């Protein structure tokens, strides 16, 4: 049972969004080719779904500026611009993504006291979203992960998938993903490889 996880391919992380990833929209046609390929038995997506005033927003902390380190619930936290607020256009999946083919959309980041990069659990590693249980219930044996952004939500999703679903083969699709900084992407890829996650491209996935 082979599954594809599309991480946070939302307006907010594409050009014109509130927290755009450089060339974030370039992942959409690649993701659509993967969706259309027939290679996957199951297609799931994650969706950042923050309430207004989420604690990871710089605007929730007087004097804080976006992209500086702050603190949330006693732990270090990158301060982000307000983004992907529930019910807004910014939070919607990219309009050109073939979302009608997605079997499950897993929302995350709803607790204002803790951020949630991973599609599988909050950053405190205590509160699960339930996605791992869903995939295991479906009998998933192979999981390909891609989306936005490589150096944050994609990396943490891939690493959590590996840890929370022992025995499932996890791969990262590089050309179906984009990151915030080149340095961050390189570090994330090194970290994923070090944990045994294969780094492939979409052509590799489509050849199988």
Number of helices: 5
> Approximately how much beta-strand content do the residues carry?
15-25%
Rg, rounded, reads: 16 Å
Strand order of the largest sheet: 5-2-1-6-7-8
Mean pLDDT across every amino acid position: 97
Order of helices and strands: EHEEEEHEHEHEH
Low-confidence stretches: none
Helix content: 10-25%
Compile the SSE list and pairings.
Elements (H helix, E strand, L loop, with lengths): L1 E6 L19 H10 L5 E7 L20 E4 L2 E4 L25 E5 L22 H7 L4 E6 L2 H15 L4 E5 L8 H13 L3 E3 L1 H6 L1
Parallel strand pairs: 1-2, 1-6, 2-5, 6-7, 7-8
Antiparallel strand pairs: 3-4
Helix pairs in contact: 3-4
Structure commentary:
Belongs to the isochorismatase family. This protein has 208 residues and is α/β, with parallel strands linked by helices. Helix content is 25%, strand content 19%. The protein contains five helices and eight strands; from the N terminus they run E-H-E-E-E-E-H-E-H-E-H-E-H. Strands 5-2-1-6-7-8 form a six-stranded parallel sheet, with helices on both faces. Strands 3-4 form a two-stranded antiparallel ribbon.
């Amino acid at each position: 049972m082979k599954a594809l996880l599309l991480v946070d391919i939302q307006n907010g992380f594409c050009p014109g969004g509130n927290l755009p990833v450089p060339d974030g929209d370039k992942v959409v046609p690649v993701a659509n080719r993967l969706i259309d390929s027939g290679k996957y038995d199951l297609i799931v997506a994650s969706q950042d779904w923050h309430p207004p005033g989420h604690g990871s927003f710089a605007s929730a902390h007087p004097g804080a500026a976006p992209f500086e380190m702050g603190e949330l619930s006693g732990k270090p936290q990158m301060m982000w611009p307000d983004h992907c607020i529930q019910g807004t256009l910014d939070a919607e999946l990219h309009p050109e993504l073939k979302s009608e083919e997605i079997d499950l959309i897993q929302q995350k980041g709803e607790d204002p006291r803790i951020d949630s990069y991973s599609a599988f659990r909050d950053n405190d590693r205590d509160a699960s979203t339930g996605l791992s249980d869903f995939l295991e219930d479906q009998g998933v044996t192979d999981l390909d992960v891609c989306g936005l952004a490589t150096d944050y939500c994609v990396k943490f999703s891939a690493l959590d998938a590996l840890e929370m679903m022992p025995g499932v083969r996890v791969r990262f699709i590089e050309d179906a993903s984009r990151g915030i900084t080149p340095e961050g992407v390189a570090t994330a890829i090194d970290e994923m490889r070090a944990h045994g996650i294969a780094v492939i491209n979409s052509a590799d996935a489509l050849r199988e």
